[in-house]
Amino acid sequence: MISILIRRTLSLAVTLLIVSLLIFTVMDLLPGDPAAIMLGTSASPETLAALQKQLGLDQPLPVRYLAWLAGVFRVDLGQSYTYGVPVAGLIGERLIVTLPLALIAIFLSVAIAIPLGVQAARKHNGLFDFVAGLFSYISIAVPAFWVGLLLIILFSTMLGWMPAGGFPGWDAGFLAGLKALLLPAVALALPQAGVLTRVARAAVLEVMNEDFVRTARAKGLSEGVAIWRHAVPNALVPVFTMLGLQFTFLIAGAVLVENVFNLPGLGRLAYQALSQRDIIVMQDVVLFFSALVILMNFLVDLAYLVVDPRLRAGAQ
User: Fold this and answer.
1) What are the Cα distances from residue 120, in Å, to 69, 126, 202, 232, 243?
2) Which residue from 11, 54, 229, 287 has the fewest beta carbons nearer than 10 Å?
3) How does this chain sit within the bilayer (predicted)?
4) Tell me, what's the pLDDT at 308?
5) What is the DSSP secondary structure assignment for residue 243, as one 8-state letter?
6) Which spans in 74-173 are helix H?
7) Quick one: which of 60, 63, 57, 55 has its CA closest to 79?
8) How crowded is residue 125: how many other Cβ atoms within 10 Å of its Cβ?
């Protein structure tokens, strides 16, 4: 088990290194000069050259990449061109919004999808299966930002139950912060719940007629107990796979949803940095998003080994 963990960790480190190189190279290829954008079109060539030297933009690409990578290892992500403050501080301030938003969305997605998928498998080809399938198809087809707009119209404008946007900060109280994140979390969770429902249904259907489930029924266990105690745990591997993939879509969807709800999260920071051509913020935020996705897939791989002993034996 330790050797498996070491191999997975080395693979994680190599993947992060390759991703960081790709991110830096792509960001460098983007059109426009950050120094020229900061100074404006009326800046003299001497002033422009001095600012480029100050920012390190006059150095060759490999030198700038190694300097940036060394800063990442020191958790020194540089200074924002636009805000004039350390990027690490900016990411930390926005992370306390985006991370709870993603976690709440994942929790809601699982809480909706697993019961729906299991019950749809139990009522295969019945009315409940049809309703669950209809929910799945509709939720997958509707974009998260459009769901967010509908939620604002219904629960904020018409009913007045929830705030239409903004984030009061966790200093205003846990309930106030949770209330501000609930609608955007629902907007992110519904499309992912639709996908996860189909995966859970298919996985449970696949194991429902296995010998161990039939044996559990033969021992006198009720249908529900046999399904939840024996079939569902053995159907978790594809569900975990989809959860890892869904985290990627949640991060991507947060960019649009945070702008719809005016949340000061990492998605909104990435959008602002892109519009302001703040390269250092863009590449640091994209690297952070990529690291989160890679780490999530790493944890999913470890979860496979925990829930399925056959995978542990095969890996060893």
Assistant:
1) 49, 8, 9, 13, 19
2) 54
3) Multi-pass membrane protein
4) 58
5) H
6) 87-122, 127-141, 144-151
7) 55
8) 8
Long-range contacts of 214-217 (CB under 8 A, 24+ apart): none
> In the numeric block, which tokens belong to residue 118?
């299991």
Determine what percent of the chain is predicted with pLDDT higher than 70.
Answer: 82
The radius of gyration of the chain's CA atoms, rounded to the nearest angstrom, is: 24
Verify that 64 and 120 share a domain, yes or no: no
Domain count, the chain: 2
Q: Is residue 254 domain-resident?
A: yes
* 8 A C-beta contact, residue 178 and residue 186: no
- What is the value of pTM for the model shown? 0.74
Q: How would you class 266 by CB atoms within 10 Å of its CB: exposed for 0-12, middle for 13-18, buried for 19 or more?
A: buried
Helix (H, G, I), strand (E, B) or coil at 59: coil
pLDDT at 33: 62
CA-CA distance, 218 to 24, in Å (whole number)? Answer: 60
The range of the structural domain enclosing residue 199 comes to 95-315
The C-alpha atoms of residue 133 and residue 139 are separated, in whole angstroms, by 10
Q: 303 to each of 193, 203, 244, 298, 300, how far by Cα in Å?
A: 20, 17, 11, 9, 5
Low-confidence ranges of the chain (pLDDT < 50): none
Residue 3 lies in a domain: no
Q: What is the DSSP letter of 227?
A: I
For residue range 22-77, what is the model confidence (pLDDT) as tens digits? 888 877 776 666 666 665 666 667 676 776 676 666 677 788 788 878 878 877 77
Q: Which two tokens stand for residue 279?
A: 């390269």
Residue 164's SS3 state is coil
